[in-house]
Amino acid sequence: MNLRGIVAVSGRPGLFKLVGQNKVGYILESLDAQKVKIVANITNTKLASLEDITVYGEDEEIKLVDIFTKISAKGTTPDVKADTATLRTYFNEVAPGHDEEKVYASDMKKIITWYSLIKDLPLFKEDTPDTPGTAAEIKLSEEKAAEDKKQKNTGSKAASAKATTKTSAPAKKASMTSKKGV
């Protein structure tokens, strides 16, 4: 299954295909029948590549691709409007070992909705290519890696900054008077 270039955009329903990039942002095309093209601003829009999304697990994180594969093998999905117990039972079958405290009903609904959107697309049946992808896809994955690294380092930097802060004696006040002849 080839999910490369398929992204979820924060604040927008549905899924989008990453078409390209310009100086303002990423050019995205919706995967629905309307094929609406939008430009997602780089500075205030968050994109999440489906290829990189994982679900909390009890032992280790579960890749979304693996969940989609199991849903495809199962063949049926429950109604997105089903009650939480039904969704949880189904999700235990397709994502065994997921963390039930961290994976909410809204997350399960979103995954089932995403599966419904992409199951009929030709790329769903393709194998993931070994090539890195388009320039925009590479930049998106690099930005995600940099953001993850920044988030991991933020806690340790704050602690080390506190440890290395020195206390010094107050600086002497500079004299603001000037000598003028009277």
Automatic annotation (TrEMBL):
Annotated region Disordered: where?
Answer: 130-182
Bias class Basic and acidic residues marks the residues at 139-151
Compositional bias (Low complexity) spans? 154-182
InterPro entries in the record, alphabetically?
BVU_3817-like_C_sf, BVU_3817_N_sf, DUF5606, DUF6852
Report the residue ranges that make up the DUF6852 domain in this protein: 53-117
Q: Which domain of life is it from?
A: Bacteria
Coiled-coil segments: none
Annotated signal sequence range? none
Which residue ranges does the record assign to the DUF5606 domain? Answer: 3-50
Name under which the protein is recorded: DUF5606 domain-containing protein
**Organism of origin:** Pedobacter punctiformis
